[in-house]
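Pinned message: reference record for YCII-related domain-containing protein
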Amino acid sequence: MWLVQLSVKKTMDQIDPKWFEEHEKRNQQLRETGIILANGAFADGSGGCIIYDCTKEEIASLIQEDPLVVHEVVDYDCKEWDAIFSTKIQ
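Predicted structure (tokens):
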């Protein structure tokens, strides 16, 4: 499992809104397949996190294909994560 933190590095006037739409559409598809377990933006607008369930070989391409990475909107930090989830998570 991988925890990827995305940090916005451009101002909003430098960002095409369609890039966020493409990012969210892709994340929805990956959630439906179970590759993304959770994702979301930080309340302060500085970025967000994504939890991926994939192999070490897959994570690099998943990150590099993210529209926000492709368009250099965000920097990212990726860490392998041995998470333990509460049974209360739905």
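Pinned by admin. Summary line: Residues 2-80 form a domain with the Alpha-Beta Plaits fold (CATH 3.30.70.1060).
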